[in-house]
């Protein structure tokens, strides 16, 4: 257990959470979307064997976790021929509704700044390349007897 908690205290806390949850629950527990999805995945005889109190305990344990609220939710498994293990993959895409920690905010800011800098570098490089090719196409020679050879390559590709 954690520091300062014991099994008895943890059980009392869960029991009070179940009582609180059942007191504020206006619809039957079996109609709760999370519980309904859980029960639909079980065989009928097993799903019917849960009492209302057990289902309320499961609902409290699962918390506010909701499944299938992603714009893209693609999951699957695969096996490699000579490997005993099976592997799974999950691709989720959707709006992030979590609150960021300070570390995640810092990492997110660094990633955003990195993307902005990369975009600027790529845009500047493509812009300068375009200007150089345009200068060469117009026959403007800024430095005598020097060339990067890009115009000759560009003419060779497009001819």
Structure, explained:
- The protein has 159 residues and is mainly α.
- It contains 6 helices and 2 strands; from the N terminus they run ααααββαα.
- It has helices at 7-24, 33-40, 44-48, 52-62, 102-137, 150-158, and strands spanning 72-79, 86-93.
- It has a two-stranded antiparallel sheet.
- α1 (7-24) crosses α4.
- The relative contact order is 0.06.
Order of helices and strands: HHHHEEHH
Largest sheet composition:
2 strands, antiparallel
What is the CA-based Rg, rounded?
Answer: 31 Å
Mean pLDDT: 80
**What general form does the structure show?**
elongated
Query: By helix and strand content, what is the structural category?
Result: mainly alpha
Question: What is the fold's blueprint, element by element?
Answer:
Layout: H1 7-24, H2 33-40, H3 44-48, H4 52-62, E1 72-79, E2 86-93, H5 102-137, H6 150-158
Antiparallel strand pairs: 1-2
Helix pairs in contact: 1-4
